Amino acid sequence: MPKPLIVEIPHELGLAEARRRIAEGLDQVQGMLGKTGIAVDRMTWTDDRLDFAMAAMGQKVDGQVDVRPETVRVEVRLPLLLALFAERIQKKLGQEGNLLLTKK
């Protein structure tokens, strides 16, 4: 099993605002994922941690998002086939996360 992909995204929003933005962003993402054939199996908040699992083309991905006062830590466990794309996935997560958590 490959090691998990981890992305740390700094922010200056505070815990509550960062969590709110992530929750709102996930609502939009879930709709888009369904259209691409990616099935969301689980998205569950426990305090400031989101546990998720999804599947597409027989591949299952799971992980968690930990919202902290100054950073958001995303950990994703990829199956071996998708681990080949880990660098691109990590870069995209960082870019999209920064856009979501940039002060407006």
TrEMBL record:
The protein's name: Polyhydroxyalkanoic acid system family protein
Organism from which the protein derives:
Methylobacterium adhaesivum
Q: At the top level of its lineage, which domain of life is listed?
A: Bacteria
